[in-house]
Amino acid sequence: MKYSHLEAFIVAVCLTSLSAVLVEAERGLVITFPETVYLNSTEKVCFTAANVSGNMQVRARLVLPGYAHPFSTWMGTERDGCVDISTNTRYYRSRAVPRTGELLVEWSVERTPGSLFVEKTYRKSVTVAPVKNQTFIQSDKPIYQPGQKVLFRVLTVLYPKLLPDTENKKDVWITSPGGTRMQQWRDQVSSDGLLDMAFELLEESELGNWTIHVQVHGGRTTIQEFKVQEYVLPKFEVSIKLHLTCSWVIRGPFTVVICAKYTYGQPVRGRISAIIALAFRYGTSSEEVREIVTVVEEADENTGCKDITFQADLSERFPGLRFRNADVLTVYANFTERGTGVIMNATSSDTQIETENVLVEMRGPDVFKPLLPYHGQVVVTRPDGSPAGVRRVRVSRPNYPAQLLDTQPNGTVDFVLDTPRTSSTTSFQITAELLDESSEGPIQAPSRSSKQVHAWYSPSGSFLQISDIKETVSIDQNVSVQLEFTLPENETQIEFFYRVISGGRIVASGSYSWINIVVHSEPVSQVAAYCHWYQDLYPFFICRQRRFRRHSLPPYRNGYETIEPELPDYRTNGTRNSTVFYFEAVAEMSPKSQILVYYIRNDSEVVSASTHFKMASVFKNQVSLEFLDGREIRPGQTASIALSARPSSLCALGVVDKSVHILGGNNQLSKEKVSS
């Protein structure tokens, strides 16, 4: 029999064995802490006490081979809290960092007034690692001419706090395309964490790709390339946009938009020459190109663009060819500027040839919680990932009636399934299938998606689940957490505890008290009640008869839900309830986090659930930058820039002609690069 394990074990937070180590008959302590601890930082160890009254004390520390950190202590009457332990040590600066350590937690309880007694000492092995860091190299331009000066910056960021590394020394060197080391700087360090460096190219410098190398002492080496070549700065750039997805069953029309714009945003006047073709890829390197259409036309005077529309039934144009999802539609475009004859070109190979009109994807958890509804979502998209609009889908599973659903204009539809009420059902399969035919052509292969889900196990049949947090969370937002759970029999109050984990660390914690103020709630032990009513009408009906299927039972009646009359293993679990609580989003939760929620039954069983959520990339130090002179500045004028940041911030600026970036290269830092 297959069951899913406690959810807390799966995430990057280690919950020590809740059933064996931390749970006692009368007293118990649940401890949450990182699976991996980083040296020279601060880690959070959180705890929840069960069936304890009076004062208590929790002491925790990290023990490494040959070195034990001092204890960090928490004391109070609250049942839930955290203690910050220090991992700062210079002991391993000059030697290899140990791979494992031991977390030592002492739990003391006030058994008699004024006296604390050590109730339990917990030892748990943890992985030890240096502080995670990443080095970024930014040159002022992606391309240089021989004889020019290369300006570049080096910044090493410490995670997860996103602070600059001001202590570790770095070796920096530059190599030519031939691999010759042209210049080097040893033992570089900066009190503010930012190295500002320069390298002068010779007039006879070798053309090609040069490389900047940065090695943090005791760490890895990071590289950044820049190009050296003779060039003339382009005045405009060419862009290609394909409006429609390309599928071999679509009979067109296709529209390609080709535009040319000057670097300052104005349209270019001139002539467009374009070739639209299919590229058939064989393996990793071989490619065959077959032309579909060639166009030579003047661009629009006002926009600098040209819409190229052509009819194409790919399966008829190329009969006998086997289309695969590795084939692509390729557009080659040349733009000749009127008056100067300057030619700029662009190529687009982003449009993949798909063998289906639409793709069906099923999203949802890989496990189900008996007694609680299963929430899932069907997503119908075009091959390019855009929404397929309103489509009819069928969601089904064996021995249950199917659901016919229409997707929203964004191509999604949510569904809810009842789950088995007994422990004898350990898994079932859900299938989503597209029913209608697209107006763009027949569906060539079954557009369907299936998912096998497995039962979550609880020895008492107690379950908890969290609704997905689908929206992207913003900083300082009050995030709602919706819970569905089974309420133990005769219980009127539950204390929920939560931990928010980001980057393998606990960044927030708290608790929420739920009190059942509703007189009537939904019974989860409905099998017995339903059987009595049904036997009054049909005396020969046997409640334990497994082959009696759900769809043949009478309709919903008297507030009771029609369910499958299998062995009612969980029929004494009280009621099913729901509630919602809130927590405040902070910068440390960016870019993604996981929230773990649990409660402790009177018999010390821990009932848990978790879900992930995304947060908008955000930094504690918010920076803004803008030109004060508007969007246009004439040559020779002085440009004014407004920059704002927190006091005492070190700000590094760079201004470069946009034309340089048209030639290619990716040397700029971005919020996404730093926060990912």
UniProtKB/TrEMBL annotation:
Keywords: Glycoprotein, Signal. GO terms for molecular function: endopeptidase inhibitor activity. Residues 1-25 form the signal peptide. InterPro entries: A2M/Complement_sys (IPR050473), A2M_N_BRD (IPR011625), Ig-like_fold (IPR013783), MG2 (IPR002890), MG3 (IPR041555), MG4 (IPR040839). This is Alpha-2-macroglobulin bait region domain-containing protein. Residues 464-663 form the Alpha-2-macroglobulin bait region domain.
